[in-house]
Design goal:
Order of helices and strands of chain A: HEEEEHEEHE
Structural class of chain A: alpha+beta
Largest sheet of chain A: 7 strands, antiparallel
Oligomer: homodimer
Shape of chain A: globular
Number of domains of chain A: 1
Number of helices of chain A: 3
Chain lengths: 142, 142
């Protein structure tokens, strides 16, 4: 898979699975929805921590990122025909977005991709992942 | 979601996303296929490291587990209707299976679930995850 195709799939993916590391050094992984924004040569993934479920699994990721900002997420599609399998992984640094311009941009990108994020204002924390490395794998590609 | 239902979904899931922690403390996440075996009150997930692609992302997980045996994986389904979202996470300890009886049992369970694992013998490493904690989330469940 070319780097361009890996990027295209990252942009289009509806869901990813995000891994962080807990304070005690154990891994944490949950599904998340995100939007990709490319600014010059930078590529960032933005996601928003839902307001409503103030429950630990959602907030755990933010706590983890504050302790250890190293994050990785994967997108893929599963098929019972394993010749069709592929994945794209993105690794980088997570940070809570505080600047209002960047927050507005992230909400714009998320609203563009997911109708659920349009309209009503969101008070939840926005998190940016500054992507530093993208790797990809495709079945049968060697 | 009841614990019984979470277990049922773990057993049925065709794919999971497995997080480990690298030697440098950063998270690593990739899709994987696995089979669940319940023995008495123990619940284990087994997966096999493919022979063919002796490439770093596949072997990385084993290296990571040998350094830090703490692992977590998540199963979920994505729908654009977010009221249908759910996930089940399983956390535990990973270990390479050396005993021949346990290896045979794992291959039996994997072959039962995935036709690709039937017939031809596998020389790849089998990894067990001894599951210590299962947590689940369902949209709208509070």
């Amino acid at each position: 898979m070319t780097p361009e195709e890996a990027r295209r799939r990252l942009v289009r993916a509806r869901v990813g699975r995000l891994a962080t590391v807990r304070r005690d050094g154990s891994p944490h992984v949950v599904p998340f929805v995100f939007a990709i924004v490319e600014i010059g040569s930078e590529i960032r993934a933005y996601w928003i921590v839902d307001d409503k479920p103030k429950r630990s699994p959602f907030l755990r990721r933010i706590e983890n990122i504050e302790t250890n900002p190293s994050v990785e997420f994967v997108i893929d599609e599963y098929w019972d025909d394993w010749d069709r399998l592929w994945w794209v992984r993105a690794s980088g640094t997570g940070r809570v977005v505080h600047a209002s311009n960047e927050r507005a941009m992230a909400l714009e990108a998320l609203g563009e991709k997911y109708p659920q994020y349009r309209g009503s204002p969101h008070s939840g924390a926005v998190v940016a992942i500054d992507i530093e490395r993208i790797s990809a794998w495709e079945a049968g590609a060697g």
